[in-house]
Amino acid sequence: MTGTRNRHPIATVCYVLLDSLFLIGWHARGLRLRNSRVRNRVRYPADPILMLPGVYESPHFLDPLAAVLRRSGRPVYTVPELVRNRAPILDTARSVRTFLERADLTGVTIVAHSKGGLVGKQLMVWPETSHRVRSMIAIATPFAGSRYAKRAPTRVLRDFDPADRVLLELAANSDANARIVSVFGRFDPQIPDGSRLDGARNVISPVGGHFRLLARPGVHRLISSLIEDEVSDGRVGAKGLSGSR
User: Fold this and answer.
1) Alpha-carbon distance 113 to 110, whole Å?
2) What's the pLDDT tens digit per position in 47-91?
3) Are 159 and 149 in contact (CB under 8 A)?
4) Is 40 helix (H, G, I), strand (E, B) or coil?
5) Which has more confidence, 49 or 207?
6) Hey, is 193 helix, strand or coil?
7) Does the pLDDT of residue 229 top 80, yes or no?
């Protein structure tokens, strides 16, 4: 994304504060949703939706978004084994692969946030799982890593170093990119160089932040379009957002 390297430090701090305040409200909203409904444990047929959260996010972090997607009538799944999603990308992908195989899910549409998009792409390029995943919409995913990761205090965050071997191998394997929609804000304080992915449909939201995109009506409309239209090549209309290849 252009213009992100010279962004004023005060503006960056504002984005971080707004994102942090949003995150508190998002967690509270998800908790209310979980307390207000009994989960349907019946095994559904084909065309499921799989929610993949980001690093340090619980399997239910995307519940408020999942509630929107359930209106499509398609089953929505989470992966309980992810816990706080602190495992390395490949280990996380293996856990999700086991879940997909155990539930025998095919025709899957992945809806992912941040690290979840990297895990989702790994599933799309592995031969043993590529046939199970139809498409993915990835929100604020660091496909090229984040330059901040080099100085991160934990190994979990250093996995997003742009020079990380897993990230470089994923970037080199572009076969799945045409089935991916990458959605990102005009500025992301966690991924300052953006989430643009060559060969994918890249959709820019006018709202900045790493987390606030999850509540954007335009993002909801885009995801609903992907779910309803069943566009297998990833060329999904983005109502209310700007998109480009």
Assistant:
1) 10
2) 899 999 999 999 999 998 999 898 888 899 999 999 999 999 999
3) yes
4) coil
5) 49
6) coil
7) no
- Residues 178 and 151 sit within 8 Å (Cβ to Cβ): no
Q: Return the amino acid letter for 144.
A: A
Burial of 236 (0-12, 13-18, 19+ CB in 10 A): buried
Q: What is the 3-state secondary structure (H, E, C) of 120-146?
A: HHHHHHCHHHHCCEEEEEEECCCCCCC
pTM of the model: 0.81
Q: How many CB atoms lie within 10 A of CB 163?
A: 9
DSSP string, 142-185: -TT--GGGGG-SSHHHHTT-TT-HHHHHHHH--TTGGGEEEEEE
Cα separation, 218 vs 221, whole angstroms = 5
Residue pair 104/169 in contact by the 8 Å Cβ criterion:
no
**β-pair partners for 77:** 50
Q: pLDDT for 2-28, tens place per residue?
A: 344 456 566 666 656 666 565 665 555
Q: Domains of the chain by range and CATH?
A: 9-244 (3.40.50.1820)
User: Hey, what long-range contacts does 225-231 have (CB within 8 A, 24 or more apart)?
Assistant: 226/109, 226/135, 226/137, 226/181, 227/49, 227/69, 227/72, 227/74, 227/109, 228/72, 230/47, 230/134, 231/135
Is residue 84 within 8 Å of residue 23, measured between CB atoms?
Answer: no
**Are the C-beta atoms of 166 and 142 separated by less than 8 Å?**
no
